[in-house]
């Protein structure tokens, strides 16, 4: 619900209750329409927007915008159309070894007719982008990559009948103020944490082809309009094979694919990633995890939920927890390995070194400092490594070490963590192995449960929770110019008080009337918080 509507509903409820209580002469206020000159002035002055397109009163565009708002509200009331969605070519993800920096990728179909792209998955950024009208892009020929058997594709906006450019006046256009004309295509630039790595171009909207895999759905396929980057220029790691055919940001920003699917009413505002020990995996949009999963809350950054940050209370080996090892960490599927704040890293690696019964060694070409010899493929006993969260939640890392192989088999192993160099850590893919990781943006929680990454469609066995209830060059870990976003868990409204109230004096409302007014305002406030969560995450 837009802020103006919250104000309007608040005033109307207040007036109706005060009239009922016999005090209609004590309260008055001017009602202002969402497309009035007053609202336009406030919007421009507060947001600093340039070239705001304001519909003319009672024009076709005027009624179109009102109808679109009503349709969005109806989708919210009816609930999601699908329990789960995944790319039309399947829910499986795949690793592609050294060529691609130890990341997970999957095929997606975009446009009409559909064209396939092999995109990297990154929970640390928001934007989906693909190579498009290339000025400076990575090679797309399969001959450049040992793990590919067919060429990669470049997106052509004019080749898709459902493609359209986003204008500079669009609400998702962050660089709109730099445009000379509000109707020109919206430019974008995303700089990533990895040195000199970026993508830039213009924003477009087109169809992302998805499937539900459910026999219960009237239609097992979905055509979802999504906004993404027509990436004409890439730099850094994106020119070196990290993401030659594009990247899907899964962050909480409004422009991300999970956000667009939820806002369109297709699925719940949540998704899951699963990484198996054989390096395969799955992704499901709308998945809120099984009922028995463990959870911890996402933490805001400067009051906003701009990435998936969690708070850890301690790090433990076996039953012994290391003192002073609490820290915050980003949960990021786009980071191949895990990073700890420097002081936490020092305490953890020293405790690991003390507990492991093996000879320390050094292996050329590997980034980790704490490595050990191994005389056979059978590892020495590795102490279990556990991350402790609040509310007694714990995350047992399935495999904290990285095996190193020679011509005769295993020659050693390393504790696969590195110092982050900053005060915040990163939980990367290697720590998520063996888990179904649920990014529940609706309830602002991270969930996890042991999993073999089974298919979650209804002809497979893994139950769902009720709808309510060798290259050190990893993928760039976090988008630096993440769109502003915030969110609050949905409130649960109670019953409205009975209309039967004792008679009251005209001059002064009774306590019952004031209580009713307060309760109605609280309900409006709860709905407002719920709306913020729905539309900004």
UniProtKB/TrEMBL annotation:
Q: Which residues form the signal peptide?
A: 1-21
Q: Which PROSITE patterns match?
A: ASP_PROTEASE (PS00141), PEPTIDASE_A1 (PS51767)
What is any one GO biological process for this UniProt entry? proteolysis
Q: What SUPFAM superfamilies does this protein map onto?
A: Acid proteases
Q: Which InterPro entries match?
A: Aspartic_peptidase_A1, Aspartic_peptidase_AS, PEPTIDASE_A1, Peptidase_aspartic_dom_sf, TAXi_C, TAXi_N
The entry sums up its family as follows:
Belongs to the peptidase A1 family.
- Residue ranges annotated as compositionally biased, kind Polar residues, are 470-487
Q: Where in or outside the cell?
A: Cell membrane
| Disordered as annotated region, ranges | 459-506
Q: Active site located where?
A: 122, 332
Q: How does it sit in the membrane?
A: Lipid-anchor
- GO function terms (MF aspect): aspartic-type endopeptidase activity
User: Superkingdom, according to UniProt?
Assistant: Eukaryota
Pfam families, from UniProt? TAXi_C, TAXi_N
- What keywords would UniProt list here? Aspartyl protease, Cell membrane, Glycoprotein, Hydrolase, Lipoprotein, Membrane, Protease, Signal
- Mind telling me what this protein is named? Peptidase A1 domain-containing protein
- GO cellular component annotations of the record: plasma membrane
User: What residue stretches are annotated with the Peptidase A1 domain?
Assistant: 104-449
